[in-house]
Amino acid sequence: MEKSYFATLLALIVHQIDAAYWHEWDLFHLPGGVQGYLLFNLLALPVLLLGYRHVVLGSPQARMYARICAALGIATFLIHAGFAVAGERSFHLPLSIAIIAACLLAGLWLGWLGWRSRRTATA
Q1: Number of neighbouring beta carbons within 10 Å of residue 82
Q2: Residue range 82-113, pLDDT digits in tens
């Protein structure tokens, strides 16, 4: 799971960098504007980084953190796909789209490995 977690985490972090360019806080109507966006990242990133540590160390909590990270990757894609279908023009540049797609693909990969490792652990 280490590689898939790293890939998902990387895609999510790069997406957050891209999201700053697109003023994602306006898209989500976050209270506090950019300050709310920064607060969200100050809370979310440590959890994801701690999760990566658990995955690398193979701790019993690794699968829980992997599920959280995978869900965020998949949710990032689904949320932005929904905005795109609704006509939102943010995140329309090729690399923005590729990063959002990478969130989905890496999240699915991580989710599949987390599910597979759970099945093999209980088998």
Answers
A1: 10
A2: 999 999 999 999 999 999 999 999 999 999 99
